[in-house]
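Schema walkthrough. Field components (list of strings):
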Amino acid sequence: MEYKTYMADRVKTMKGSAIREMFKRMADPEIISLAGGNPASELFPGDELSKIAGKILMTNPTLALQYGTTDGYPKMRDCARQRAEKVNSVGANDAILIMTGANQGIDLTAKALLNKGDKVIVESPSFIGSLNAFRTYECGLVGVTVEDDGMSMEGLEDALKNNDGVKFIYTIPTFQNPTGATMSLEKRKKMLELASKYDVLILEDNPYGDLRFSGEDVPTIKSMDTEGRVIYTGSFSKILSPGMRLGYIVAPSELAEKIEMLKQVNDVHTPMLTQLMCVEFMKKYDIDSYIAKNRELYGKKCAAMVSAMEKYFPKGKVKWVTPEGGIFLWCECPTITDITPVVDRCLEKKVAIVPGSNFATDIFAPSNMFRLNYSSATIENIEEGIRRLGEVLTELL
Ligand SMILES: Cc1ncc(COP(=O)(O)O)c(C=O)c1O
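Field assembly_structure (string):
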């Protein structure tokens, strides 16, 4: 049976994430993955959470196992508010909704805002999950180059000037996925100014903001928003556990009301058990000291990766900027146009990296870039993975 003819236009042009495809091949335990976006599992508070989950199910099974409210368990909303207020990112007219991961918040915001043919300005490259969410609403994606200090503001102004129907700018200003770049304060202010001038909204996605291991924090765009133009999304995935699927959105009440209705249709509510577990975890333990341990580990892993890159990569053939936080390192190979043979050869040598084309607005355009992740592999595997990658680069560049 040929299913293509039955499929909606909105899914016809979607391409699966190369990362997910790679995961299928990565069942091989010998493969060293520098590909995914997984946080370090060695620090997961498994013991603490198993005791908490057991206690919740023993003492309050009805609350944990019954339907909950769509906007989130109130104490979980308080936890999300606490995180967002820590970075001054809750405005006077904002509501907070608990989402089944930030992914859902991004998807439902797009669903609430986009008509077919509207445009979204995105960083190029950007997070594939968000790009794919936007694509399903049949909108146009306008990519703007990411520089070492974040999205190009000249590029943004050109994009706003030359495109009708732009609804919002999607940005990951801190430790961007995939580039690891952090937008400067000046650029954040400029983005707000341009959004106001061209009357568009901003969707600020900040799942990595807590993971700084060097340099100084930069205020969120949301914290400087005086017009209610910024919708902010945060996540517990990289600071507690991605499997618990806890994220949140801070949005003006009028918009939040619509997003809540869409969530009702989508999944009714985020699982109560993981919401209750997070609330108890934050009550019993200091989540900031848990995050601090992660930050320290990521700083060490990043340093190990960079020193292995300096040792094993062919000199002068690969460019990168060392990030100050987050979980990704972005590399460019200026002497070639397409990184695909490198990625394929790496898989033969049992190391996985992600080609840059995966994060582009035009997924069919070749890319000479690739993304590395340093949070999930062990330091030994990071060194061995980079050694193998270095051999491939030396062979093919
Ligand atoms: C930039 C960015 N936004 C959002 C998400 C989704 O996070 P969550 O697990 O909360 O859905 C990710 C996950 O990797 C991400 O990199």
